[in-house]
Each structure stands twice: as C-alpha cells, then as structure tokens.
C-alpha cells in the first residue's frame, strides 16, 4: 500500500470565504487504490475541502496536486484533461432534470468522445447495470427515489472510467439498508476498477466500513489522518466526541461572550 | 447628521460598486461566449448547433402567438389614438404615416423586447439558478463541460437570431391591426393602406427597429444568465433572481431604447 503512487497531494492549503478563514493549513496525501474518508462535523470544512479538490474554487495559498498536476497553476486545457479522469457524485446527485437517466449518464461521453449513439447507449446501460439501475434508463430524475438518484449519479461519475472518484455524503438522507448497499457498491468499484476514492461523510458506520484511511477535520484543521484503528484509538477529545456522539461544550470566555452579544 | 450622511454615502458607494461589478460580469460573459464560439473547436468543446436550434424553438417559435397578439393590439390602439388626435386637425387620413413609423421604429422592437424579457429572461434566471442550487453547474464544470459554452452560448445565439425575427413579425402584426382599424374607421381599403404604408416606410426605419431588437436580445440574455449564476440561498434565491432579472431587463431595455432613439434621431 505504501509503495503505491500518490494521486492526491494537498500541501498547506489555506482558504477563505470572504474574510473568514475556512481551511487552515491542510495537508494530505491519497495513494492509488486507497479509499479515504474525510470526516468531520457540520461546518468543519469538509465539503469546502472537496470543492477545492475538484478545482471549483481557488485557494488563498497552498497547492493541490491531482495525478501530478497542480490545480492552482494548471492552464485551462490541463484542467480539462485532469477532470476527464475525475468522477464526482454530488450530495443531491446533481442529475440534469431535463434529461432521462440514460442521457445523464451519456453526457460526458457525448461531449468528450466521438463514439456513435448506439455505442454510447450500450456503455451507459453497462454502467447502470453496475449500480443496479438496469431498466430505469428512460425515467427522468424526478421519477427516481433518493437512493436511485445517488446510484444514477454514481453511474454518471464512472462513465469515463475515472482514476479518482469523489463522493459527497453518499449516505445522507438514505435509509440504513440503501446506505449499506451504496457502501458495498463503493467497495466493489475500488476492487473492480482500481479507482482511488475520496468520500466526504459524517456517517460513522459507513466510514468505518469502507475506509482504508480516515482524515478527521475540525474547524478547518486536520486533527488526525490514519487507519481506522489509529483513528479509533486517538485520544484527542474532539475526535472522541465525534466517534462517541458526545456534544462538546466549549469553555466559555466571559469577555468574549459579552463582546459577541453586544456586537462591538 | 454627519453619521446619517456617512451612512448614506456608504450605501451609495456600495450600490455603485455592485453595479459596476455586475456590468463587468456582463462584459466577461460576452467575452467568454465569444471565446467559445470561435475557440470551442480547438478546445474540443464546440457549441452544438442542435442546442442552438432547441433554444430557438423555446425563445422564438414558442413566443410567436403572444408577440403577435400584443403587437396586433398595440397597432389597433395606436391607430385609435392617432385618429382621435388627428381628428382635431381634420387630418385623420394621415394616421397611416404616424402608425407605420411608430410601429417599425419603436413599438415593434419594444413590445418584442418586453415579451422576451418576461418569458425568456425569467426562464433563464430560474433554470440556471435552479441548476446552481442543485450543484448541476458544478457537475458540468467537473465533467470538463464549460457551463458558459453549454448553457449560455446557445441561448445568446438563439436570441440574436430570433428576437429580430420576432420583431419583424411584431411590425407586421401591428400593421395588420392598424390596417383593420383604418378600414373600419376611415373606410381605407387594405390595398390603399398597404400602398400608403410602403410609401412612407424606408428600409432605414425597419432596420432601426431591428438594430434595437438585437441590443434588447443581448440585454435580456445577459441579465437573465448573470442573475441565474449569482443565485445563493436555495429556492427563495431562485425566486428573487427571477423577479430581479425581469425587472432589470425591462428597465435596461427601456433605457437603452431611449439612448438609441436619441442618438439615431438627433
């Protein structure tokens, strides 16, 4: 495992939203074939980190290298090239509501290849079979259930056989059975296609089930990166709060509290 | 008092900066659209003709009935008012001159612009805004499909072709209305009406209206698209952007019309 090539290298990433500091000196590496979970509570910056990994925002400082290309310095055509090796499954699926499931899955092929229509249709149906959505290709996203939407989005994400697959909250809003199916699907994909997979989630069960390694993010900083056991054994109080679902009561500074209330 | 004045200045300043930023965004959108039209092939992201035709149906063909009815009604109203006014001088037979010029130079393009702003401008803001909220625009970006190339350029191209066409149809519809009214009120035969109209009109009059309509098309497209892309805050944000895009497009259209008319006629 340790000899595998690094496919994601993030160094000293600092980002702001307006004047507010969101990510504070984040560094992490993901190796080929690894399933990395990025975990953290709401507002920990994990979804933000994903946006930067996808190159949707420009960081304040630091570098993000995907498959050896630095996103912060990439030229537009290099960007296009890198993104053809990425697959992304967004939180709400982000399927195009005006198209059928099959047209959604075919869209990257249609835009980036010169294959003929029937070949693209066959490839799309194959990917839909992979995610157990065979036979649903003529439906529109509005006619699908939450779990089916996530699986259709996954089919679209893997249509170009990406080297890197990103997931934003795969199990959010799904019942436990469907969420577990999705977890199995992620594991199968890694084994069948040798993809490196990054999953952003706050679901503990699913995280421990599929993770090779876990990065715990809290208030824009990385608390720990390690294997499942290392994270479980970590004695950092914030990590334990997250693992044991304890509410954390921050120590209160009386002056600071007063300042916040009066708004000065 | 000083504090109040400072706050007032602060608000004005922020407003001006926001306005300049918005206009800058319009400029950037035009530049990027142009880039994709000419450079799309070399970047292997051509603008699809099928997408342009699809938008032409939505923007243009589907708007034919409403534009026709409104332009017809305006033609009728202009003629009624024209006859009423000119009757004071006993010159009601001259109404054809006024109506023909007013319709082709002013009301044809204006009616079309307002209808397109209401139909297409709002639909654009709502569609793109919804796509921003549901991360569909992000999804396009990470698939290496430029949102501007895929969503914006087909609409602008379709508008540039269809709004002038609609304007020409609006001219004709308004003149049909005027012809009917002059027939009923003044007993002018359709042939005589057509004859008088063609005598009065020059190519320049019609082209002036067409040129305006091209400007209106660009305004509606840019305002709709930029409001859509700047949506934040879910469904409510989409609603706000939709309203804003209609109000702003119509305002800009009327102002641009005034400026245009000023420079072309003085």
Descriptive report:
- The complex is a heterodimer of chains A (about 260) and B (about 270).
- Chain A contains ten helices and ten strands.
- By secondary structure, chain A is of the alpha/beta class.
- Chain A has a domain at about 1-30 and about 40-85 and about 200-265: Rossmann fold.
- A six-stranded mixed β-sheet of chain A has the order 6-7-8-3-9-10, with helices on both faces. Chain A has a four-stranded antiparallel β-sheet with strand order 2-1-4-5, with helices on one face.
- In chain A, α3 (about 100-110) packs across α4 (about 115-130), α3 (about 100-110) packs parallel to α5 (about 145-155) and α4 crosses α5.
- The longest helix of chain A is centred in the C-terminal third of the chain and has 18 residues, at about 175-195.
- Chain A starts with 5 loop residues before the first strand and ends with a helix.
- Chain B is an all-alpha fold and about 270 residues long.
- In chain B, α3 runs parallel beside α6, α4 packs antiparallel against α9 (about 235-265) and α8 packs antiparallel against α9.
- The model of chain B has no long low-confidence stretch (mean pLDDT about 90).
- Chains A and B meet through α2 and α3 of A and α5 of B.
Quick synopsis:
With 264 residues, chain A is α/β, with parallel strands linked by helices.
Largest interface: A-B, 23 and 16 residues
Give the biggest beta sheet of chain B: none
Number of DSSP helices of chain A?
A: 10
Major sheet: arrangement of strands of chain A: 6-7-8-3-9-10
Question: What percentage of residues of chain A falls in helices of 4 or more residues?
Answer: 25-40%
Tell me the number of structural domains of chain B. Answer: 1
Beta-sheet strand percentage of chain B?
Answer: under 5%
Radius of gyration of CA atoms of chain B, rounded to a whole number? 22 Å
Alpha-carbon distance between the two ends of chain B? 44 Å
Oligomer: heterodimer
**How do the helices and strands follow one another from N- to C-terminus of chain B?**
HHHHHHHHH
């Amino acid at each position: 495992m340790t000899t595998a090539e690094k496919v994601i290298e993030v160094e000293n990433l600092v980002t702001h939203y307006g004047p507010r500091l969101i990510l504070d000196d984040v560094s992490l590496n993901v190796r080929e074939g690894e399933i990395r979970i990025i975990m953290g509570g709401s507002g920990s910056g994990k979804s933000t980190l994903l946006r930067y990994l996808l190159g949707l925002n420009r960081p304040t400082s630091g570098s993000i290298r995907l498959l050896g290309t630095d996103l912060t310095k990439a030229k537009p055509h290099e960007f296009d090239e890198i993104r053809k090796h990425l697959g992304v499954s967004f939180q709400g699926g982000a399927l195009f509501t005006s198209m059928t499931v099959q047209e959604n899955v075919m869209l990257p092929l249609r835009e980036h290849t010169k294959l003929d229509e029937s070949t693209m249709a066959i490839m799309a149906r194959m990917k839909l079979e992979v995610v157990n959505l065979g036979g649903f290709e003529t439906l529109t996203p509005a006619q699908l259930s939450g779990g089916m939407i996530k699986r259709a989005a996954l089919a679209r994400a893997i249509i170009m056989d990406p080297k890197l697959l990103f997931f934003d909250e795969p199990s959010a809003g799904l019942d436990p059975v469907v969420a577990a199916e999705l977890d199995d699907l992620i594991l199968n994909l890694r084994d069948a296609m040798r993809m490196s997979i990054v999953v952003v989630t706050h679901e503990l069960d699913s995280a421990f089930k599929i993770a090779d390694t876990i990065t715990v993010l809290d208030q824009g900083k990385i608390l720990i990166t390690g294997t499942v056991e290392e994270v479980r054994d970590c004695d950092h109080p914030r990590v334990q709060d997250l693992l044991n679902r304890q509410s954390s009561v921050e120590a209160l500074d009386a002056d600071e509290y007063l300042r916040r209330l009066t708004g000065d | 008092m000083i504090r109040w004045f400072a706050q007032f200045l602060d608000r004005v300043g922020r407003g001006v900066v926001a306005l300049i930023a918005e206009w800058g965004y319009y400029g950037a959108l035009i530049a990027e659209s142009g880039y994709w039209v000419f450079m799309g092939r070399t970047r292997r992201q051509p603008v699809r003709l099928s997408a342009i035709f699809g938008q032409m149906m939505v923007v243009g063909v589907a708007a034919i009935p409403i534009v026709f009815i409104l332009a017809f009604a305006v033609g009728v109203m202009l003629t009624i008012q024209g006859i009423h006014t000119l009757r004071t001088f006993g010159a009601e037979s001259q109404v054809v001159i006024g109506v023909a010029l007013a319709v082709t130079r002013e009301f044809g393009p204006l009616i079309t612009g307002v209808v397109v702003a209401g139909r297409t401008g709002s639909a654009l803001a709502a569609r793109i805004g919804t796509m921003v909220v549901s991360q569909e625009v992000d999804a396009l970006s990470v698939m290496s499909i430029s949102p501007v190339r895929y969503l914006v350029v087909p609409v602008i191209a379709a508008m540039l072709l269809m709004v002038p066409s609609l304007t020409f149809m609006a001219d004709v519809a308004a003149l049909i209305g005027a012809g009917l009214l002059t027939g009923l009120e003044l007993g002018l035969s359709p042939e005589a009406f057509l004859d008088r109209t063609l005598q009065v009109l020059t190519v320049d009059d019609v082209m002036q209206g067409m040129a305006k309509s091209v400007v209106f098309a660009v305004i509606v497209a840019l305002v709709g698209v930029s409001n859509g892309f700047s949506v934040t805050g879910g469904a409510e944000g989409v609603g706000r952007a939709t309203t804003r895009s209609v109000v702003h497009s119509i305002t800009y259209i009327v102002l641009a019309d005034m400026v245009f008319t000023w420079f072309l006629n003085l």
